[in-house]
Amino acid sequence: MASTRVGYPVTTEHQMHRFQFRPTILQHRLTRSIATILLATGLGLAGCDAGGDETDTRAPDDPRSVAVSNHPLAFFAARIGGDRVDVRWLVPDGVDPAAWSPNGSDLAAMQSADLILLNGATYEPWRSTASLPRERVVDTTAAIRNVLIETEEGPVHAHGPDGEHTHRGTASTTWLDPELAIAQSAAIEKALAELMPAHQDLFRSNRGVLIRELQERAAAIEQAVNTEPDRPVIFSRPVYQYLARRFRMNGETLDWDGLTPPDADALALLDETLERHPAAWMIWPEAPAEPIVEALEERGVTCVVVPIAGGPPADGDLLTAMDESAIALRRVYDFD
Q1: Would 261 disulfide with which of 168, 239, 291, 303, CB 3.0-4.6 Å?
Q2: Tens of pLDDT, residues 159-180
Q3: What is the DSSP letter of 158?
Q4: How many other CB atoms are there within 10 angstroms of residue 72's CB atom?
Q5: Which domains are seen in the chain, by residue range?
Q6: Which of 37-41, 132-136, 278-282 has the lowest mean pLDDT?
């Protein structure tokens, strides 16, 4: 299918309250671990020489094409690269990028790109069978593998029209931990600087702005959760592992489809969970169907949306989604 250019302003500031960012002991350890890995492995890139044996006749200021597998990577590439990059978004509208597999034309568009940004952490299960030029592939979590979260094997299930898939292996929504998102953006900056060294100062400056914006939103979320960090919550799907770890949330995870009303077995598991974990809130990536809301309200559980933003939000971008998350968690934790 035809690619779509994704354009984001490089220096746009999003309006919100600024909070002082106070790293926890766990945060210090994780940050030191990430920094050590980045220095030791040079960000673990699979090589970024887009030229091969052919001579590149383009001018230094001509945009370079960057193919991506999810919205956070598209957002980071566009914010860091600015008008020096042409982001290729290949996922069809309404499809969860985590459940998407590229077809022949999608792969051709990827193969012809100057860079191919992948999330890694098992986010792209199609990668093992796809033929991609290794010298242009950037696994943005390759350098932080030792802090990724391993998950238990689970059953194959379906989330709406995207078909059956599984969350076994490694938790893949890494960007929900802002520090891991910052590490992924470092891999992107490095790859862009190697591809277009004349603009490395621009990329560094743009990423500096991005880091500040991510940290501001991390601080807002942390301040909300710290109001009552032991408050029990339920995660509707196994996609919040990095958010829960980073902000030390006291959560239990179910695996509910937001479109299909829960059957007797699902409700029984919910009741069992509530007995040992009396949560008043269930966190969802998107608003569930009304019958689900009603079934939960009968048990004293309120639904709240904390976006994943694996795909482009309907209105806004990754930072907007983080702002929405902070607002939602202020409700959950009674932050005034």
Answers
A1: 291
A2: 444 455 554 589 999 999 999 9
A3: E
A4: 27
A5: 4-221 (3.40.50.1980), 227-332 (3.40.50.1980)
A6: 37-41
